[in-house]
Amino acid sequence: MSAPAGAGTAPPPGFDLRALLAARGGERHELHSRHLNPQLPRMLRTIGFDRVYERAEGAYLWDADGLDYLDMLAGFGVMGLGRHHPVVRRALHDVLDASLADLTRFDCPPLPGLLAERLLVHSPHLDRVFFGNSGTEAVETALKFARCATGRPRVLYCEHAFHGLTCGSLSVNGEDCFRDGFGPLLPDTAVPLGDLAALERELARGDVAALVVEPIQGKGVHEAPPGFLRAAQEALRRHGALLVADEVQTGLGRTGDFYAYQHEPGVEPDLICVAKALSGGSVPVGATLGRDRIFRAVYSSMDRVLVHSASFGGNAQAMAAGLAVLSVIEDERLTERARTTGGLLRERLAALVDRYEFLHAVRGRGLMIGIEFGRPRSLGLRARWSMLQAARPGLFAQMVVAPLLHRHRILTQVSGDRLEVIKLIPPLTIGEREVDRFVTAFTAVMDDAHGGGGLIWEFGRTLAGQALAQPRRPR
User: Fold this and answer.
1) For residues 182 and 467, what is the distance between their CA atoms, to the nearest angstrom?
2) pLDDT at site 459
3) How far is Cα 96 from Cα 102, in angstroms, rounded to an integer?
4) Taken in order 245, 248, 249, 251, is the CA torsion positive or negative?
5) How far, in Å, CA of 29 to CA of 36, rounded?
6) Are 119 and 289 in contact (CB under 8 A)?
7) Which of 85, 101, 171, 432 could serve as a FRET partner for 230 with CA atoms 20 to 30 Å apart?
8) Between β-strands 216-217 and 222-223, what pairing exists: parallel, antiparallel or unpaired?
9) Which residues, listed in sequence order, are joined to residue 273 by a DSSP beta bridge?
10) What's the mean pLDDT in 369-377?
11) With the CA atoms of 469, 177, 220 and 405 taken in that order, what torsion angle do they form, in degrees rounded to the nearest 10?
């Protein structure tokens, strides 16, 4: 039998990816400035993050000089298994080599069904899955499904939530900095995280389809108060509304349970949104899990079979990556490792709170940790803090992130605009060696900040000057 066309043949002579990167990879910042987001290379240069990483594996990046960088950011949580996990790589090679008849649109391929089956094992009260391509698409799906299933127009969300940046998801995004300039949005309503009275007031109006909530908010790493999710679920059910858990960043073992909502007994969301780590860091994927009755309300007849779909949803490469990810999480016991390693990291960082005046709190679950800074007690340190706050809130946290990279080769992030919080979301594969490296480096930066170290405060003055020079955008 002859091989299918293209199988086993050499790549076309007109394209050589390695040669292209070798010839033009050095133009990366210029290309972005000219053709993509012009502010990205400018921002990277300003904070000294315009490094060139040559390769990556696991929890580490390497530059052209062969120096390693500890990645405590994991691509905003996408690299939950670390970079280039061999099981994910093998699955992608296998699915490409299989030359499957993918995305025919008049077919029921097995891989989406198999991945849905594996996902639903971790939320046995749910029945069906819709596959899209990203976290914001998973949230968009949940918004549409909730409105269709309930016949109601309004969705509640929590202040300071994220949920995504497409227009529907942006309507339930609790941060003005993301919403400004993109209105009018959908008429959804914010309530404070944990405020049951505010939730009840909105539900009493009778037009609420759902509450969408991150069990732990990515911005600031704020956890829903104990008992809130269970009480909110009961209130929503009394009023005929749905609970939507956004587990895009918190799901798949990140917080020490497969889903973060599982920290609170008795919580069973009607819809769950996942993405990020499900991709294995390789192929974009998003998923919305839900109850059978919700899906049947959307897909209510053969005429509505494609009433909600995604052109690349359920593609073979994404499904293979997702299946490989779930296998690795189970085989390497990454949920348990996140709980253990995260507990050790939080414990060692929390022990520093009484030692450093700038360090106010350490919080989070598993390997999703927030380090919060605040106003110090002593007069000299207060003056420095006030200088930065007058220029722009959040500069102190950025002043810590920068030397962690520049001096200690550790990549981290400030947790949100104008927040004095650093968020740690490393690969779930890290262990005691990486904990030691981070805590040692963080301690050195804190020593420098409290001791008046010249380099760190020089950088702070530079950031403050740039912040003051920025024009204020009208609101």
Assistant:
1) 24
2) 64
3) 10
4) positive
5) 10
6) yes
7) 171
8) antiparallel
9) 246, 288
10) 96
11) -40
Calpha distance 363→423 (Å, rounded): 10
Q: What is the rounded distance in angstroms from the CA atom of residue 318 to the CA atom of residue 55?
A: 23
Model pTM?
0.92
Report yes or no: 215 and 245 within 8 Å, Cβ to Cβ. yes
| 226 prior amide bond cis, ω within 30 | no
Query: Could you tell me if 325 and 81 are in contact, meaning their C-beta atoms sit under 8 angstroms apart?
Result: yes
The whole-angstrom separation of Cα 270 and Cα 291 is 6
- Sign of the dihedral through C-alpha 176, 180, 182, 187: positive
What whole-number distance in Å separates Cα of residue 213 and Cα of residue 363? 19
- State the pLDDT confidence band at 475, using cuts at 50, 70 and 90: very low
Q: Residue 470: is its pLDDT beyond 80?
A: no
The torsion angles phi and psi of 150, rounded to 5 degrees, stand at -100, -20
DSSP-assigned letters across all residues of 436-457:
HHHHHHHHHHHHHHHTT-HHHH
Over residues 11-29, the mean pLDDT reads: 86
Q: Are strands 154-158 and 128-132 parallel, antiparallel or unpaired?
A: unpaired
Task: State residue 325 phi and psi, 5-degree precision.
Answer: -60, -50
Output the pLDDT for position 471. 53
**193 neighbors 211 (Cβ within 8 angstroms):** no
pLDDT computed for residue 246 by the predictor: 98
Q: Which residues contact 339 (CB under 8 A, 6 or more apart)?
A: 256, 257, 366
Reduced to 3 states (helix: H, G, I; strand: E, B; else coil), residue 246 is: strand
pLDDT digits (tens, 9 = 90+) for 303-360: 999 999 999 999 999 999 999 999 999 999 999 999 999 999 999 999 999 999 999 9
Place of tokens 């679920």: 233
The amino acid at 312: F
Between β-strands 222-223 and 359-365, what pairing exists: parallel, antiparallel or unpaired?
Answer: unpaired
